[in-house]
Structure formats: structure tokens, C-alpha cells
Amino acid sequence: MTTSPRFRLLPMPLHSLLLFVVWLLLNNTVAPGHLVLAAFLAIAIPLLTSGMHDPQPSIHKPFVTLRYILMVIGDIVVANFEVAVLVIGPAKKLQPAFVAIPLDIEHELPITILASTVSLTPGTVSAEISEDKKWLYVHVLNLTNEEELIALIKHRYERPLREIFKC
């Protein structure tokens, strides 16, 4: 049985690689000075911030994740057309509202993905997550049925996230 050392030079190797590459791309050079500075930043920043990293649940079902991403992209396309029809029509027909969605997921990453998914879909915007992480408050451009909207978000978005992250 091997134990990982408490101090690692690269606690987040992918972040380090990304920092290194982005620094060089931003400066549009591979001059020796920039290579050294990029390497320093790629090592120093993850070392300084690694203590702030909260453990998050990992993805357990990559194929469900891919299906979720494709579904969200499709929903965004469809919602764009629906919102366009609503905006072109008379403004008096719109019924904007705030809706509180009860959350069954508990970890920050899946909650953030759910809130982002809702915000990416035209016609809805995540307004706030309660401090106890039990409610997601959503602003809706045109609310016709609150219970139906809650059921849709829970079934279409929250349920797959629970499956993906096993939470």
C-alpha cells in the first residue's frame, strides 16, 4: 500500500498544464523568459490554491453525462425558438414569475450545474440558491403552470445529475 505524499509539486497537474499553455498563448511567445515565468506560475498558483479545493463528487456515468449534455443543447435550441415567439407576441401575454424549486441534490458541483443548465435555457434564469442548499430560485419569463415547471426541472435536469454524480 502506497500513501501519497502530503506535499506534491503539482497538486493539480491539469490546472498547471492549462496555466502554462494559457500564459504562453496570452503572450504569444515561447521566449525563454516567458517559458520560465509560465512554469513558475503553473507550479506556484496550484500550490497556493490547493488548500482551497473542496472535494466534489466524481462523474460515475460518462454516457449519461454525454446524453445530458446533448439533451441540454437540444433544449437550448428549442427554447430559443419558444422565447422568440413569446418576445414577438404581445408583451401583455407574458407572465413572468419567480419559482422555488426544492433540491434533492446536496453537493455544490451538481447544484451549480443544475443552476447553470436552467440559466442556459432561454426563458429561465437561476436567481439564487438558498443558504441551506435546499431551494433553487428561478425566474421564468412566462409561467403557465408552476407545478409543471418544477416537475420538468426535477425530472429532466436534476434526476440525471443525481444519476451522474450518485448523490
UniProtKB/TrEMBL annotation:
Membrane topology: Multi-pass membrane protein
Keyword Cell membrane appears in the UniProt entry: yes
GO molecular function: monoatomic cation transmembrane transporter activity
Pfam families the record matches: MNHE
Residue ranges crossing the lipid bilayer per the database entry: 68-88
Keyword Membrane found: yes
Localization annotation: Cell membrane
Main location: membrane
Sorted UniProt keywords: Cell membrane, Membrane, Transmembrane, Transmembrane helix
A GO CC term attached to the entry: plasma membrane
InterPro entries listed in its UniProt record: Cation_antiport_E
Stated family: Belongs to the CPA3 antiporters (TC 2.A.63) subunit E family.
Name of the protein in question: Multicomponent K+:H+ antiporter subunit E
Species this protein is from: Neptunomonas qingdaonensis
